[in-house]
Every structure is written in C-alpha cells, then in structure tokens.
Amino acid sequence: MAKSSNNCNCNDNSSTNTRNNNMKKVLTFGTFDLAHPGHISYLEEAKTHGDYLITIIARDKNLKKDVINSEEKRLKQIKKLNIANEVVLGSLESKLDVIHKYKPDIICLGYDQKADEAKLAEISNAKIIRCKSFKPHVFKSKILKKNI
C-alpha cells in the first residue's frame, strides 16, 4: 500500500476533526460524471447507514474512462445535491488514501461499482455495503451519455 498522501482536497476543519466520536461515518466513492437519479438513490441509501456521509469524487488523473465534466464540475454537482455532509476530491496518489484519512465505519459501494472488496476489508475495519440499483436500464451514465 502506498504511503498516505496529503493530496486529498480536504481542509483542516473536515469531519475527521470535528465530528462526534459516536457518529457512524459512511464513505462513498464515484466518478459522478452526469449526476442523475441513480446517483441520488445511491447517496441517499448510503446516508441511511450512518450519521455522516462523505462522498469522494474520482480525480481526472485517476480515471481510465472518458468523462464529460471535469473533477471540479463533478464535485460541484454532487455538493449541490445536499445529500452528503462532505464532498471532496480523492487522492492523486492512491485511491485508497481516503480510507486511511477518514477511517470510515461503513463503506458503501454502488451496485455496479468495480471495487476489490477483499482489499477494502484488508485495509479497513469498515463494514462494506453494496447499495441497490435504481432503474439501471435508464439511469446509468453510459446510457445517458449516448443521448447527449
């Protein structure tokens, strides 16, 4: 595992410093290129599993797929939804750095999100939950991009 970096777009007043220690912290990840009802459903479900939701936006540099919107625009789109308590850009060094930084109690993954659940369990004590899909035949970024 790479050494944890300080490249997360997180300020010193983040939840890691100010939250009540009894609160369950939930972490979600995603590209969120075109924010749509499927993303909203994912974030709303994730929020029900804890008290404080942190959503990590994938960095442009770390993406292996084409996106329409920049990381800054994607970050703003998810913030505007007002679902997550905190929305931040992921690490430039390693996608897993945010797990070390935020030390979540729960990691919620999207129904179709590619993630090495064994690796997540190995580096974190967080409970891993796979969220339900929401009309994936309609609300999937790949499908929506075809209609643009």
Biggest sheet character: 5 strands, parallel
Percent range of helical residues: 25-40%
Give the terminus-to-terminus CA distance: 39 Å
Rg over CA atoms, rounded to whole Å, is: 15 Å
Strand content: 15-25%
**Structural class by SSE content:** alpha/beta
How many domains, as an integer?
Answer: 1
CATH topology: Rossmann fold
Total number of helical segments?
6
What is the average per-residue confidence, as pLDDT, rounded to a whole number?
80
The geometry reads as globular
Give me the count of strands: 5
Under CATH, the homologous superfamily reads: HUPs
Which CATH top level class fits? Alpha Beta
SSE series: HEHEHEHEHEH
Q: pLDDT under 50 segments (min length 5)?
A: 1-18
CATH architecture: 3-Layer(aba) Sandwich
Biggest sheet strand order reads 3-2-1-4-5
